[in-house]
Amino acid sequence: MDSLAQLRTRLRAFASARDWEQFHTPKNLAMALGGEAGELVAEMQWLGDTEIDDELSQGKLRQRLSDEAADVLLYLIRLTDVCDIDPVAAAQEKIDRNESRYPQQLSRGNTAKYTQLSSPEEST
């Protein structure tokens, strides 16, 4: 199983077999997604970048992050399914918008939000 569509179908069947559709409202799924994203962040909360790199290379952190990332992905897929959103199409459209919002020549190496970017001609 390697496609989001297959994963969505499997999740839909998983929820249906347990009569969980009644609980899988957009609000509840969004809240669960937020909670799981928090658990993902908590795995690295007090670690420095070097510690994270070391623990990832030793495999200590990788499994915990894998489990939490899977939870985030599963809730996101379930939420987009319930809301009838194609997550891949939505992501592609967002990248398209961001390509115009963040022109390469203005954004390279720059963390400014697109509303704060200006061309060199505008700043003179």
TrEMBL record:
Composition skew (Polar residues), residue ranges: 101-124
GO MF annotation terms: dCTP diphosphatase activity
Which GO CC terms are listed, alphabetically? cytosol
GO BP term (any one): DNA protection
Which InterPro entries does the UniProt record give? dCTP_Pyrophosphatase, DCTPP
| Chain residue ranges for the region called Disordered | 96-124
What this protein is called in its record is NTP pyrophosphatase, house-cleaning of non-canonical NTPs
What's the source species for this entry? Actinopolyspora saharensis
